[in-house]
Amino acid sequence: MKLSSEFIRLPLRFDVARLAGEVRQFGEDAWRPHPQGYPGNTALPLISAHGDASNDQTKGPMRPTPFLDACPYIKQVLASFGSAIGRTRLMRIDGNGEATAHVDTNYYWLQRVRIHVPIITDPAVKFICGEQSMHMPAGESWVFDTWRMHNVVNPNPTRRIHLVADSLPSAAFWSLVERTGEDPAFVPFDAAEQVTLHLESVNQPIVMSPHEQESLLALTIADLPDGEEPRQLRAELTRFLRDWAVLWRQHGESGEGWRAFTALRDQLDQILQRFERHIKLPNGTDAAEIVRQVLVRPAINPELARLSQRTIAARRIERPIFIVSSPRAGSSMLFETLLQSPGLYSIGGESHSVFEGIGRLSPSQRGYESNRLTEEDADVPTAKMIEQRFFERLRDRNGRPASGLVRMLEKTPKNSLRVPFLNAVFPDAFFIYLYRDPRATMSSMLDAWRSGKFVTYPNLPGWEGLPWSLVLTPGWRESIGKPLPEIVARQWSAATTTLLDDLDTLPPERWCVAGYRELVEDPQKEVKRLCEFVGIEWDRELKAPLPLSRHTLTPPDPEKAKRNGPDLDSVMHLTTPAMERARDLFAKPPAPRVRHAANPESATATAPLPPEQADFGSVFTRGFPEILDRLGISIMVSTYQSGRVVLLRAEDATTLNTHFRALASPMGIAVGPASVAIGTQREVWDYRNQREITARLEPAGKHDACFVPRNVHYTGDIRIHEVGFASNQLWVVNTRFSALCTIDADHSFVPHWRPKFVSHLAPEDRCHLNGMTIIDGRVRYVSALGATNEPQGWRETKADGGVLIDVDSGEIVAHGLSMPHSPRWYAGRFWILESGKGTIATLDLASGKVETIAELPGFTRGLAFAGPFAFIGLSQVRESNIFGGIPLVDRVKERLCGVWVLDLRNGEIVAFLQFKGAVQEIFDVQVLHGVRYPELLEPTSELIASSYVLPNAALADVARV
Fold first, then answer.
1. Contact 888, 799 (CB under 8 A)
2. In this structure, which of 257, 269, 597, 723 has its CB flanked by the most CB atoms within 10 Å?
3. What is the pLDDT of residues 593-610, one digit of tens each?
4. What is the CATH number of domain 313-587?
5. Tens digits of residue pLDDT in 395-434
6. CB 786 within 8 A of CB 794
7. In the CATH hierarchy, which top-level class contains the domain 616-945?
8. CA 37 and chain centroid, separation
C-alpha cells in the first residue's frame, strides 16, 4: 500500500523472548522457499489460502495453518492490530543474504498494509525503502510504503526472522498509525485469553466493478509521466473503463457476461504490449506491467464463483490423488499398489463411465474431437455430478463403502488430457505423473492396439484401419491412413505434451514424478516416497516383483521393447521433443512438497534425498540473467557431487533457465571454438557443436548451439580435475598421479610434467594438483594444495600449505595459499581462488603477494570471466577430514552453493545464483562466449541416433528427401 512516508512505527511492542520461543519450536522442514524465489529467503505459513500451508496464493479465503495453533502469543500479537488479517508468515533471510530489491505491485498488496514484527534480528540488518534505510528493532511493529522500491539486507552470518502480516487496515488500525509518535505500549502474553482472529474471506472479485477499477487506476495514472506514449496509454485505459462499465450494467457478476468480460480484458492485455518497457513510473516499475497486475489479471475470476457455489454443500472427497500418464506406462500397477494404503478409496478401476456417462462430456457429443476437458467444462452442476458419481462407487482396500470425508485414488490414462478439468473440480487435488521409458511405453502401446483388448471407440467416424484404441488425442485425424507405429508415436506425443503443459501450470507442491523402473525394482521405497508426498499412510511391506496388474499383457521385461524395435526406429523422430522433455522432467522434477509434522513441536529437519529423488532447484537474483543477456553468453557448471552438468541460460533479461544434464562425476570443463571437453569419473568426453540439430529442439527457434558427444576416452580413475585446450591439444590435470597429461588413442594418459618435489609417477595424490593456467596456448602455471611428496601429504597443511607453480621453471611462485583452485590470467592480472578462505584474490607473479578482492559465503572453486565480470563457483562443503580446519569453516557457518558474479571494476558482488537441494558442491565454471542458449545432449539421447555428421565429399552422395 502507498503510504505518506517510507516507515511508520506502530505504538505497540511485544515480548521478544516469548515470540522467539514460539518460532524455535518449528523444525527446518516447516520452512518453505520464498514464493518469488528470492535466494536465501524462506517462509513459514501461519495464515494462507484455505489454510493450506503449501498454498502461496493470495486468492481465496485466508485460514490458519496448523502452525498457527501452536503459537498462542503470535495470535494475540495479530489480534492487537484490530484489523482483518490476510496472508501471514514468518519470513526468514539467511545470513549474508537479502530480500532482493522490488516493489509490491500486485493487486492484493496494493490494498493492504504489510505489518512487520521483528523477532530474531541483528543491528546490522537494514530495511531499505525508497531513499531511507533503517533497522527495525526486535519486538517493535512497523509498516512501510510497499509502493516504493524496498529491500532487506542481512550482512552478518546470523538469520533474520520477522512476523509479516498483510492486513486490510480498519479504522482502529489507522488510529494506531496516527499515534506513531507515542512510546509503544507493551502487549504481554495472556495465558487465559482465547483469541478469535478476524480473517479475510474475500480478496479477489469474481468480476471487478467499474468503481474499483477507477480507484485502482487513479494511483497508476497519477504517476504517469508527461509525453505522447503516456497520453496514449491514458486514452486506452479510459476506453477500457467505459466499455467495462457498460458490460457491468448489463451483466454484473453473472456468468452470462463472463465471456464478454474476458474478451475485453484480453483485448487490453494485447494493447499493453505496445507500451511494454516504454513508460517507467517514479518507483522504477514498468507502467504496462503495473496495469496488468492491478487491472488485467484480477479483473475476472470465474473460478471463485464456481468454488464458492461448490462449497455450499459439504465436500465429501478431499485432496484426491490422480495418477496421470500416457497409456501403457504402468499406471495400473501403481494404482493397484497405492490402493493398499489404509486411507484411500477408489472405484476399483478406470473411470471412463464416470466422465463419458455425462452427456456433455462424452466425445460423441463433442464431435469426437478428443478426450480433452478443460476448466471451462467444469461448471458447478458438472463438478457436483462428477464428485457424486465418484463418491457413490468408492470403496477402501477392504471393500467398505465411503462415508464422511475421504481421500480418493483415481487412474485413467484419458486423464492425461483432463488435468485442467480435474483441477477445477477438485482444487485441492494431487497429481502423480508416472514416467516410463518412452520407447518401452510405445512398444506396449503397439501391442495393445494389435491385441484388440484396448479398443475405446470401435466406430470412430472417419477412422480407418484397426479400431481406435487407448486415449483419443487431439489431432487424431492427422493419423488417418498412417502406419500403426506412426499412429502410436503421434498418440504418445500428443498425450505426453498435453499432460506436461498442464502440469506446468500447477503449483509444484501439487504434483510429483514417479518412476516406473523404480516401482518395479524397489516398490517399497518408491511407494513410501509417494505416500509421504501426498500425505497418506503406508503400513505394508512390498517386495519385487509386484503382482501383475489386471491390464498386463505380458510381465515386465527390459527386453520387451526390442521386439518392436524395427517398427519404432522409423518413427522415433516424431517423438523427440516430447521424449526429451519427459526425460528432462524425470531428471529434474518439480520441487518436492514440504511435509509438516502433525505436532509442530516434534518437527525435525528433512533428511537429504537420494540422487534419484533429488531436488535440482535454484534461485537467482534478477541481475544474473540480465548480465548473461547483455553479454550474449551462457555458463556451463560442473557439479561432480550430484552428477550433473548445468547450463545457465537467459530466457530473457529477467528469467534464468537452469538446464541439468547427467554425467558421472563431471569435473573440469574445457571450451574450444566449436567443442567442449568434460572430464568425468573415468573418462574424458569430447562434445562437438552440431548446430543443425538446434532446429529439432524445443522450444523451436530458441537454441543456438547443440553439443553432441562425438568421442569418449577412458583414462581410468585418475581423479581428473581441470582440463583445457593448449596448442590445439587437450591437457588434463591428473590429480591422482600428480601430473599434467595429454591423451591419445593408445594410452590411458600421456604424462608431460610433474612438480620437482614429486619424485615418482604414482597413483597416490601426493600434492593434490588441481588447476592450471593457459596463457597464449601454453600451460604456464598450476595450483596444488601442498608441496609434498608423501601420499596424501597435502592434507596435513591444507589450511595454508597451498602453492602456485611455474610450469616452465618448475619453481614455486607463491606459498602459503589456502586450498588454491582455478588459477586464471585475465585482463592483465593473475587471479586465484583461495577456496579454504572462501575468497577471490589477485596474485603478483613477481613477488608472490596475494591481495584478497572479495570474501564469499562458500568454498570458492570454479572461475571464469566475461566482460567486466568474474563468475565464481561456490560450494557448501562439510566439516570432514578434507574440509575441516580451514578458515572458511570458522568464518561462515552456513555456506552456500551456486555461482556468484563479481564486478571487476569495484570488487562488488552484483548477482548470484544459489542451488538448492541436491547440488551442494561445484568444481568448474566456464563461459560459452557468443552462445546464448545451448543444449548438451546426454549420451543416451535419441537425437544422437538420428543425427549424422559426414565429410563434405560424402554429402554429395546423400539422397535428398
1. no
2. 723
3. 333 322 222 222 223 333
4. 3.40.50.300
5. 998 899 988 888 999 999 999 999 999 998 888 899 999 9
6. yes
7. mainly beta
8. 9
